[in-house]
Every structure is written in C-alpha cells, then in structure tokens.
Amino acid sequence: MTRLSALGLCLLAPLATAAADPAPERARELVRMVRQDCGSCHGLTLKGGLGPPLLPETLREKPVESLRYTVLLGRHGTPMPPWSAFMNEAEADWIVRRLIEGFPEETR
Amino acid sequence: MKSLLSILAAVLLSACAAPALRGTGDLGLVIERASGSVAVVDNSARAILGRVEGLGDLSHASAVYSRDGRYAYVFGRDGGLTKVDLLERKIAKRILQAGNSIGGAISQDGRLVAAQNYQPGGVKVFDAETLELLADIPAEFGNGKQFSKVVGLADVPGNKFAYALFDAGEIWVADLSTPRAPKLTKFRGIGSQPYDGLVTPDGRHYIAGLFGEDGLALIDLWKPEQGARKILANYGKGAEKLPVFKMPHLRGWAVAGGRAYLPAIGKHEVLVVDTATWQEVGRIPVKGQPVFVMARPDGRQIWVNFAFPDYSQVQVIDTLEQKVVQTLSPGKAVLHMEFTPRGENVWISARDDNRVVVFDTASFAKLAELPAQNPSGIFFTSRAARIGF
C-alpha cells in the first residue's frame, strides 16, 4: 500500500517539480485568497468553520494529489466549490503544499 | 473663605474631568477582522470615535447589543465572547466560551446572551450582566454521539432562541424562560444542510435557508404543532447551479412590504416571496450570487452584495419596480452593509481597500470614507430594539 502510494507520488512528481513556484506578487494574491476567501468557511486562521480545518496536522496524512483536486474541482455533496476558474493546477499544488507545511501569514 | 475657594476649585476640576454626557443611539461598531479590534463609530458625525483592541480572531465576527445600547456582545470565530462598553470604549468582560464559534443573539428580556458554536457543536447561554454560563445545550443528533454545527441562531418571543443544525437538518427552539433549565422543541427532517436562519420582524416565523437542496424551511412559531414546511422548493429546477464561493446570510432585514427578499443559492438572483402565502412571486436578476439581501428600514429599497468574485459591487433594488435601479462600486471585497436607524444612509465595508464608505440612500452620493483595517461587519446600536438582531 505504502509502495503503491509512493509509486503514485513518483508518477506525479514530474508535474509537481516541473511547476515553478508562483511569482512573488501572484504568491501574495494566493495567500490572500486562501486566508480571506477560503477563510470565510475554513476560518482566517484556517482552524475550520463550516468547512474543516486546513492545518498541517489535519492535512499531513492526506495525499497531495487528492487535496489538489479538491481545491480545483470542489467536493460533491459538500459546500466546497471548485476553484479552477481562479488558479491553475500548479498554483493549487503550491497552495496545498504550503497548507501542509503551515500556511504563510499575509504580508501587509 | 479658603475652604469655599477650594470647594469651588474642586467643582470646576471635576466638571473638566467628567466626559460629556451622551446617549448611544447613534453609535455602532465596525469589526476589523484581521487586527482583532473594533472601531467605535458615530453614525451622526460619520466618524470613528476610537478603537477597542484585544478581541481575538474576528473573522466572521458579529455583535448584538444590550437593551440600553451601551454594551456590545461581540462573538469571535475563536470562541471569544467580548462585552464591549461603547461609552468607555473598553472591554467590560471577555471569556473564551468555545473552540470555534459563529455568532450569537440576545434574549427578548435582554438578560441572556446565547452563542452558537461549531466546535463543540451547540448553544451556550450566558448571563448578560456577568457572562456567567447558565445553560449548555449540545447539538446532539443521530445516535447522540454526533454533534452538529449550529447556524442561524435568533432570539424569538418568549425568551426563546431558534436555531438550525447544519449537519443534522434540524431546527431547535430552546425556551429559556427558566435559564438554567432550558426546554427544547426539535423539528426534525426540515431539509438538507441548513446554512443560516432568520426570524421575521414580528417574531412569528422562523426560516432556515437550505444549502443541500433548493428551498427554505419555515416554522410558524405561533403554531409550532404544525411543524416545519418547505417553501420555494425546487426554485432551481432544471437549471445548473453555479459553484458557491461564500454562504449567504439571512436576517429579518429581508422582509419589506409584505414580501421577503431572499438570496438564491448558486444563482445570480434574489427570490421574492409573499409573506402571507409564502409563495414565490418573483425573481430579480442581479450581478452575482447574493450574500446579504437587506431592506432599507422603510422597505422601499433592497441592497444586495455578492460573493467572490463579484464582491466589489453593490446593487439596489427598488421594491415598487421590483428591479435593480442602481449599481455602486464602494471598493474591493464588500463584506457588509448597515443602515442608519431610519435608513437615510448606508455604511458599507470594503475589506481589501481598508475603508468603510457611507452613502446617501436617496441620491446614492458618497458622503464619507472612513479608514478601517480589513473591515467586515458593521453593527449599529439600533439593533438593540429589534427582534432577531
């Protein structure tokens, strides 16, 4: 099982590593979007609200790929909407990885 | 002679030190969500009088008022409940009452403050004077091992509170006439995922909006034995729903001139319902997905703001014409609107532009711009006298 998911990660890895981090200005926009707009359901501090917490300890065990697709495509049967109109796959991936390691604060 | 002089001096000194007497009828609060502070504002002078800091995480914070309009009870996301003295501009009392909270209400008699919580799911009731915990009502459902997030808490006549259980699809009415021994009436199977609720201005009907299906659940509080019924069922029939980037909010302000104006979920529409029959009588197309649909106190206009990404505009519906007559751009990320008590002005918060903008509701002229740190909710003390606020 672990080997399978490791294999899955290897197959995905090219996409993830090929994608460069967003430019600083775009990164600031994405941080703001997560804190403020995702925050309206998940909380400004991402500790959860109507939506579940988005803290490292709640996300760490979950596969990056499924988290990325939750961001892009939403989750059927829940209020989670798809965000694919506002970010590309690499940006969603960047957001998910930042969430897993502890999401940055907004810089003012 | 000497003592007379010193008495005179003392009288003069104390007259200088004492603050000018004033009422609170034209005061209010603006939530500054990122900095954990509230701005105390004067809606006659259109000015910020000062700030009170140290209120914790104020994302999605809301406030209710004591009957005398002196104290605001501010409910923070982090479970903080803060009693703010508007006149002294300081925190009178503050407690952490839950892990994750979403709002609250004050009882008809003004003696009880109730908080609705996501974590742990339920309602807690406090003494309005001391913030002492009087009742803890977990939102248990199913086999009693699950607890639902609570939404749509509203005070209703009889010192009761009505609210909805998001995860359970239930509406509960808690009778707090004996505060330490609440009596619950539960309405089950009211619909899927109630997201917020409102009580009509007369206190008779409680309505919960549903996210998991089209329609709203209605309870006639004068005839609770009739149970809950569905209104506006299938309003989205046959049409593809748009993704919802922000949950709409419901309050009793949506009722004007015998009609209720309600946000359609996943649609660029305001739904219009006749409050005598509770039948749909119209739909008004608007610019985005409505979040707040608020009637001016006289009921002649309905002001609407929108969810991301259409949240930098506000539209005004004329209730005689039943259509949009004005579109304004107050700033980026409009989160909330509040009318002055008799509706001649409206205050609008533009979060990303760090300002609150005041408009004349007759001419739509911009009257003032006030600086505020990421402003969200605006709450005037006139709420103190209204049921459901």
Would you kindly provide a written description of the structure presented here, covering whatever features stand out?
The complex is a heterodimer of chains A (108) and B (389). With 108 residues, chain A is an all-alpha fold. Chain A has helices spanning 2-18, 24-42, 56-59, 64-73, 89-101. In chain A, α4 (64-73) packs across α5. Chain A is globular. Chain A starts with a helix and ends in a 7-residue tail after the last helix. In chain B, the strands form 9 sheets. In chain B, strands 3-2-1-34 form a 4-stranded antiparallel beta sheet, with no helix packed on it. A 4-stranded antiparallel beta sheet of chain B has the order 4-5-6-7, with no helix packed on it. Chain A binds chain B through residues 32, 36-37, 39-41, 43-45, 47-50, 74, 79, 81-82, 86, 106, and chain B through 33-34, 57, 59-60, 77-78, 99-100, 102, 118-119, 149, 151, 166, 193, 195, 211, 243-247, 308-309, 333, 351-352.
Summarize the structure.
With about 110 residues, chain A is mainly alpha-helical. Chain A has helices at about 1-20, 25-40, 55-60, 65-75, 90-100. Chain A has a single domain, classed as Cytochrome c-like domain (Cytochrome Bc1 Complex, Chain D, domain 2).
Layout of helices and strands:
The complex is a heterodimer of chains A (108) and B (389).
Chain A: H1 2-18, H2 24-42, H3 56-59, H4 64-73, H5 89-101
Helix pairs in contact in A: 4-5
Chain B: H1 2-17, E1 27-32, E2 37-42, E3 47-52, E4 62-65, E5 71-75, E6 80-85, E7 90-96, E8 100-106, E9 112-119, E10 121-127, E11 133-138, E12 140-141, E13 146-147, E14 150-156, E15 160-165, E16 170-175, E17 183-187, E18 194-199, E19 205-210, E20 216-220, E21 228-231, E22 255-256, E23 259-263, E24 269-274, E25 280-285, E26 290-295, E27 301-306, E28 314-318, E29 323-328, E30 334-339, E31 345-350, E32 355-360, E33 366-371, E34 375-380
